[in-house]
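Deviation from plan, reported transparently: D-mannonic acid complex.
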Amino acid sequence: MSARLTPARLITLPAHVRRPGYDRARVGSAIVHIGPGAFHRAHQAQLIDDILETDPRWGIDVVALRSRDTLDALRAQGGLFTLKCLHAGTQTRVIGSIRRAVGSQDDPWGTLMALAGPQTRLITLTVTEKGYCLAPDGALDLTHRDIVHDLAHPATPRSAPGWLVAALARRRSTGAAAPVIMSCDNLEDNGRKLAQAVITLARQTDPSLAGWIEAQAVFPRTMVDSITPASDPAFLDAVEAELGVRDEAAVQREAFTSWVIEAADAEPVEVLGAGGAIVTSDVEGHALVKLRVLNGAHSALAWTGLAMGQASVAGAMSDPWLRAGIEALIRDEILPGLAAPDGLNLETYAASVLTRFANPSIVHRLSQIAWDSSQKLPVRLLGTVAANLAAGRPVEHLARAAAAWMRFVVRSARAGADLTDPLAAILTRTALSCSDDPDTDTARFLALPSVFGAALAQHPHFRAALSRGYRDILALERGAPPAPTVSEPHP
Ligand code: CS2
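Because the crystal trials were delayed, the predicted structure below was used instead.
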């Protein structure tokens, strides 16, 4: 294996590799990011890298709440990592915007100092759906294990809301201004949900702190978008072959990238806007379209494609039956319930999403999209189901996607595979009690209160559609794709 990528080795990189054009020693730390996974590194860290070329204040300190791997890799490389865009003609570049990497478990004091220090003007988060510790109604789940822990140990929290409350409490007591706090996860109304989670948690121990947060902190809504396949060993080897040094934190993404941020009277938002983010008052419109169309279709394609033995998004898109099903899901059951935000044509947007999915330069594993499915299904598809049922619109394709998730869980449990899902234990128990009878199996899954709310679980039309969908997926598993599903409005 070659030597590691480090600041000293930047000069050894091949000439075609772009590298930071600014003096990293002068970079400040006005941003703290919680959750330095591949998405953050491929998306936000690159936009900030561009901003640093002209304004050195906005360097990033990253905080990892759990996994050590990324921290270790970034530390060994002085924060540097490679970004490769999977599109002919795009440049490979080394990003220098991450100054420091802190682990909250081994350095709680360093974490607090980063989050609460007056130099920090912007805190961003990519902690995935489960990182917010929300109940199915979108409010903070006060019975969540991590929240129970954080209420008992407020100085050494585990959850993202717990760390934000600890940091905001310290900022208030030290006279530091509240920062802008920005959720960058695929959640409907992500800014408001994060604000409410933090304020609810603060209120449990200190109602006056909750009031201060409400009055002082800004939690803009955002929409983030860029398809970022996980970095597997083959990708890291290819980067090593191209760069001549080993980079254990390298990331890859499609060329398309977008960050839409709710307008706010706050310098960090203006700086991101000047750096290429879209700042608008209608983030929710954009975010809902992206969540329901792109993420909803992604999950549906992943669960259904896996039932057919497909492995990647592009592979699944090349199957005519799957492609037709995804097109019908979007056209007949998702788009009719969406209002187009200003400047966005829904049909054009949907077509562009399908083109991105079919990109042959990207190997995006369906199994990666299937991680944490119990958290994704409600936010990506069940909101559309509820809206369609209320409006008399069809739910056949949506129900079949939910049934495909159930079968994915059943197959994983029977194969003894580890489910990457916070509900893995209860899902595995549920799956192992299934008998391949559509009515009884779907009823067992519907009884999971933290996935399907009571109203959906009892809706006769949805239950029937789910059973039909389940039967279709059983047929797919046997290699017999059923006749195309027809979206019929229900009475
Ligand atoms: C994907 C998303 O893994 C998944 O669940 O649906 O990560 C998706 O690629 C991004 O949201 C695209 O912006």
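The mean pLDDT is 96. We consider this an acceptable substitute for the interim report.
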